[in-house]
Amino acid sequence: MQSKSYKIVAIVGLALFLCFAYHLYTERTRPFQEIPKTVANFAALKTDGKKTTFNEEKGTATLIVLSASWCPACLAEIPTLKKLHHDYADRGLKIITVSEDDNLRIAAKFKKEQKIKWTMVHWNYDLMNALGNPQAIPINYLVDSEDHFEYIEAGIMNEKKMRHAIESILR
To answer: Distance (Å, rounded) from C-alpha 20 to C-alpha 71?
Structure first.
């Protein structure tokens, strides 16, 4: 009888442990801690070392892209970002790439190598908090002129969906 009680306690203990481990895993693998409704103004250093803010850089529609030079999925997005910049910059789209590289020097080198024509800033904690503390890259945020998040996409950008979202803001 006593060994049966130990087995039941062990099974219940194991079940509780597995539930706790699953909860911890899902908390740490969510792409966002919390997604705010609007983007708060943030300050960051551009790759040239000058300070800028979101309010200074935003457009009628603003695409904020979290990226890094070491990220294969981020590199795969660059041709699409170049097309979007080419097609919509004169209609009010601004792109801000947030580099999650280790330092500003690496980000500046990456911008130059990739011939990125739009603003690139280096990440900081206030900026990341303004974007809901994402825990993955690439992530693309499309923001309207009133700073509302209109479209958010984690992972490699779906160009067709992004174009549709940009068009709906720029109309």
So the answer is: 31
Q: Residue 141 has which token pair?
A: 């945020």
Per the CB < 8 A criterion, the answer to whether 66 and 154 are in contact is no
Kindly give the pairing relationship between strand 43-46 and strand 51-53.
Answer: antiparallel
pTM for the structure as a whole:
0.80
| Range from 25-34, 88-97, 123-132 that averages highest in pLDDT | 88-97
Q: Which listed CATH number (3.40.30.10, 3.20.20.105, 3.20.20.450, 3.40.390.30) goes with 43-170?
A: 3.40.30.10
Query: What are 93-120's pLDDT values in tens digits?
Result: 999 999 999 999 999 999 999 999 999 9
Residue 138, preceding peptide bond in cis (omega within 30° of 0): yes
Q: Tokens 């910059």 identify what position?
A: 89
